[in-house]
Amino acid sequence: MHTYRAYGLTINSAAELPELIPWTGAEAEVLIRRQAIDPTPPPGARFGKCGWATPDTVYLEFPATAAFRITAGREIVVEQHPGADLALERLLLAGTALAVLLHQRHLLVLHGSALVIGGAAVGFLGDKGAGKSTAAAFLHANGFPLITDDIIAVDLQANRTGLAEVAAPAPPNAQNSPRPGPVVWPGFPQIKLWPESLAAAGRPVDNLPRVQADCEKRAVRIEHNFFDGAIPLRKLYILTGAPAGSPVSIEPVNPQAAFMELVKNTFVATLLPATGDSAAHFHQCAVLLKQVPVATLSRPRDLARLPEMLECLERDLL
């Protein structure tokens, strides 16, 4: 059994997950074990993408790779299929399966990347291919600590064990300050990047493992400047493309449009009808928007323009 730390949770795992941070000395809150899974849905289960769900259990089936049963935010059972690509199984386990588990623990799970900028968490959301990981890698290469890539786990209750370690600059008269608002829990020190994005971030491609056997995207281990603590969420940016030659720009998003962006960029959005959590999720998004501003960050897809993105963010945040 291996023990890891991710998203503020101690995880005991029968499956080796080298992407996560090895951990010792704490009682596990999550168990990952291997076992054959009965795929038969129980009475009342609802069907969604890749499987079925009840209020406390989600079953996911990925043909030729693995099946996962995630229960009550505390356990993930993995059934590996014969001949499976182990890298793809780990990708699904540390991504989709953990995202479902975090959702079951009542966190708002967004699909994006986050870094520490100006002493607080700043998140980047956007459609597939919008450049979330590319932006994170470039910012990290320029000295900003990485918090998470792919999954942003937002805690709206600010009452989990460990929040005494929330890292934010203490304001004057801090003893009279209110408890922190939404906070982000750190994922694990890895960014997944295409070779051209690695080049833009100044990283060599040689010897970097592929995220799966038939994919050129590479897994980059972050060896330094990874922020491993809960931290208040300051702002969210929606990454959008812009025509070549256009300036990099940041514009505030009105509350209605921001709400739709949060729903669209929720990691488990396709499962919400099956789990019966749609109303609770919409409430989480509304609560977040009362405390965290959302803006669009529009930039041409030219990787040579990334320094302009950094300048624009510094003007907006610092």
Order of helices and strands: EEEEEEEEEHEEHEEEHEEEHHHEH
Number of domains: 2
Strand order of the largest sheet: 3-1-2-4-9-8-7-6-5
Number of strands: 18
- Oligomerization state: single chain
Task: Give the second-level CATH assignment, the architecture of the largest domain.
Answer: 3-Layer(aba) Sandwich
- Cα-atom radius of gyration: 19 Å
What would CATH call the class of the largest domain?
Alpha Beta
The fraction of residues in strands falls at 25-35%
What would you call the structural class? alpha+beta
Mean pLDDT: 89
Largest sheet: 9 strands, mixed
The backbone outline, from C-alpha atoms, is globular
CATH homology group of the largest domain: P-loop containing nucleotide triphosphate hydrolases
CATH topology of the largest domain, which one? Rossmann fold
Low-confidence stretches: 161-178
Q: What distance lies between the first and last C-alpha atoms, to the nearest angstrom? A: 44 Å
Q: Determine the number of helices (DSSP H or I, runs of at least 4 residues).
A: 7
Give structural notes:
This protein is of the alpha+beta class and 318 residues long. It folds into 2 domains: 1-105, no CATH class; 108-318, P-loop containing nucleotide triphosphate hydrolases (Rossmann fold), CATH 3.40.50.300. It has helices at residues 86-104, 132-141, 195-200, 255-264, 272-275, 278-289, 306-317, and strands at 2-6, 9-13, 21-22, 30-34, 46-48, 51-53, 57-62, 66-71, 75-80, 108-117, 120-125, 146-155, 183-185, 190-193, 218-221, 231-242, 249-252, 294-300. The protein has a 9-stranded mixed β-sheet with strand order 3-1-2-4-9-8-7-6-5. A hairpin with a 3-residue loop joins strand 7 (57-62) and strand 8 (66-71). Helix 4 crosses helix 6 (278-289). The longest helix is centred in the N-terminal third of the chain and has 19 residues, at 86-104. The radius of gyration is 19 Å and the shape is globular.
